[in-house]
Amino acid sequence: MIEELQDPHRIFFKTLGNQKRWEIITLLEDGPRRATEIAEKLGHEQSLISHHLKRLLMCGFVHVQPNGTERVYSLNEKTIQPLLKMVHRHIETYCEKKCTECGP
After folding, report:
1. Tens digits of per-residue pLDDT, 28-57?
2. What pLDDT score was predicted for residue 62?
3. Residue 23: which pLDDT band, with cuts at 50, 70 and 90?
4. Is 75 left (phi over 0), alpha (psi -120 to 50) or beta?
5. What is the Cα–Cα distance from 38 to 50, expressed in whole angstroms?
6. d(CA 82, CA 29)
7. For residue range 61-90, what is the model confidence (pLDDT) as tens digits?
8. Max Cα separation, the chain?
9. Torsion angle in degrees (nearest 10) through CA of 51, 7, 73, 48
10. CATH number belonging to the domain at 4-76, selected among 1.10.287.1700, 1.10.8.140, 1.10.3720.10, 1.10.10.10
11. Distance CA 4, CA 26 (A)
12. HSE of 39 in the Cβ direction (CA atoms, 13 Å)?
């Protein structure tokens, strides 16, 4: 039996399924942002945002580019942006009406 921490699939979906990280990913769909800007836009403490950005970085969901004293975060263009487009297409096709009827 594979332990949870050793299963990359579980880690991937757990990372993606976290509400705060999903908010960050959604915000970054509009383009790169500094950590301070992300915290401000989402109304969260920067320490919380930094914690979640660290996990997103470790899992390759985002990239970071130093810009002076700040760090600018962007979505992984090679894998995550295409994945999000596919997810949005799936939701529009199969989930918009059906999934909302099921509730949380």
Report:
1. 999 999 999 999 999 999 999 999 999 999
2. 98
3. very high
4. beta
5. 9
6. 11
7. 999 999 899 999 999 999 999 999 999 998
8. 48
9. -10
10. 1.10.10.10
11. 26
12. 15
Contact yes or no for 49/35 (Cβ under 8 A)? yes
Q: Strands 70-75, 62-67: parallel, antiparallel or unpaired by DSSP?
A: antiparallel
What are the Cα distances from residue 103, in Å, to 13, 22, 76, 90? Answer: 20, 19, 31, 18
How far apart CA 25 and CA 41 sit, in angstroms, is 13
Question: How far is residue 77's CA from residue 55's CA, in Å, rounded to a whole number?
Answer: 17
| Single pTM value for the model | 0.85
Q: Which DSSP string do the residues of 6-58 spell out, in sequence order?
A: G-HHHHHHHHHH-HHHHHHHHHHTT--EEHHHHHHHHT--HHHHHHHHHHHHH
Domain residue extents for the chain: 4-76
In the DSSP assignment, the letter for residue 4 is G
